[in-house]
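Model the whole thing, not chain by chain.
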Amino acid sequence: QLQLQESGPGLVKPSETLSLTCTVSGGSINTLTYYWGWIRQPPGKGLEWIGSCLYSGSTSFNPSLKSRATISVDTSKNQFSLKVTSVTATDTAVYYCARQSAYSYYMEVWGEGTTVTVSS
Amino acid sequence: QSALAQPPSASGSPGQSVTISCTGTSGDVGVYNFVSWYQQHPGKAPKLMIYEVDKRPSGVPDRFSGSKSGNTASLTVSGLQTEDEADYFCSSYAGRNNVKFGGGTKLTVL
């Protein structure tokens, strides 16, 4: 059974870089059938798709992040990672990683989420 | 990018049916049959309930159904049960490998 687990600092200072890793277990990240994505949810608000990647390193992003986000893949560790630069309080959210269908773009399997707070 | 539009709340009594709408544009919901719905209980991760407009993943009760007409997709929950009380989010492919979510609807079972 495929499982995803987010990890990373829970507190980031304003203007610094947020870094999170998603570890995939119970299946391989090396597949063209799925993208590996990041979604966030600010406190009390809705979901926002951040972006996704293929195991090859090909990526796509939500235009609203204005190039602040990058996603990378480490196939040797079966992990993929998110970085968001120049964070502000508006980046405070629960961050989820998910397996995303490469054909019809739905998020099929989700991690449990990790809370990231941006504060000095 | 603008979110898909959902009503902030919906409600129904046990056993009744409720429908939640999700309105997009001719650039997302209206042109792609890649609409999905997610259920989220408080403090939990979202769970996929419907994909490709009207398909149910294994294990999702057939009380949950999806449909689409024009730029609006809908999720119908029939035979409401207390455990259906949750937030529901729609999502659509929006072209160029881009995905949009709706703002979410809080479903209350009275």
